[in-house]
Amino acid sequence: MQVTEKKHAQEAHDDHGHGHELAHHFVSVEQQHDAGNLGMWMFLTTEVLFFGGLFAAYTIYRYKFEKVFEQASNILDPMLGAINTIVLIFSSVTMAFAVRSAQQGKSKAIVAWLGATIVFGALFLGIKYGEWKHDAHLHVFPTSDFNWTWAREKHAEGEHGHGHDSHGPELKGFVFNSPVVPANYIESDSRNPEAKQAKLFFFLYFSMTSLHALHMIIGFGVMAVIMVYAWYGYYTPHYYVPVESVGLYWHFVDLVWIFLFPLLYLLGAHLGAGH
């Protein structure tokens, strides 16, 4: 008798909630969908606070060291930043198609669009890695190896077409092999207070861009799991919250870059080489 009651209760639950699509602690699919979205928006709020601290620090020091921050930004390549911006916009488009496919119950289309999103994301990180190789060559990583005098001189040489080897990093495999900075450059930096200010800019630059890249890599992992579930037809027009949630996450990651690009790359774009 008890088994029969449980069976009838389960059947009623399945009829009301479309089978496996409704977790036992929700009354309806609509409630489950709203709860999932609310949870994701709450998570993204914490992410806004997380990145907000870095943006606040950038704003304060940008105001305090305006001249040097512009000069440091001038070292970066705005063209590569613009290309990466376009790449991420395309990734947002493919993600939107993935969510739409989930709403329509097209499992294989979900896999295809999420795969395309990962490809665009990987292209973004590949370009970013190329930038970091060049940064290593210029000695602008905010470590003990940082040298502002060297970076400005080599950047000016590259802009003016002098010193062909100075514009690109020497690389063996995936290991950065930067040229050794002469002692006179190190001494010059030690007597230049602007060197510490420039180092602060690049500390913020690498902190913000590497944190952004880490969020992208995490997104890749989540998308890969969702692709596996989608391949086996787990998502239907009545249940696609995970796909929609990862879509919200990815659009947030793209939005963060939309702010990073002008703040980091375009701040000193009006300056000529060597300034």
Question: Can you offer a commentary on this structure?
Answer:
This protein starts with a helix and ends in a 10-residue tail after the last helix. Helix content is 75%, strand content 2%. Helix 3 crosses helix 8, helix 5 runs antiparallel to helix 8 and helix 8 (193-231) packs antiparallel against helix 9. It has helices at 2-17, 29-64, 66-75, 78-103, 107-138, 148-160, 183-190, 193-231, 241-265, and strands at residues 170-172, 175-177. It has a two-stranded antiparallel ribbon with strand order 1-2. The protein contains nine helices and two strands; from the N terminus they run ααααααββααα. The model is unreliable at 1-17 and 162-175 (pLDDT under 50).
In the predicted model, the low-confidence regions spanning at least 5 consecutive residues are: 1-17, 162-175
| CATH class placement | Mainly Alpha
The CATH topology label is: Four Helix Bundle (Hemerythrin (Met), subunit A)
Q: What would the average pLDDT be, to the nearest integer? A: 82
Strand residue content: under 5%
Evaluate the radius of gyration: 25 Å
Estimated helix fraction = over 70%
**What is the global morphology?**
elongated
Number of strands: 2
The structural class is mainly alpha
Going by CATH, the architecture would be: Up-down Bundle
Number of helices: 9
Order of helices and strands: HHHHHHEEHHH
What's the CATH superfamily, by name?
A: Cytochrome c oxidase, subunit III, four-helix bundle
The structural domain count equals 1
Strand numbers in spatial order across the main sheet: 1-2
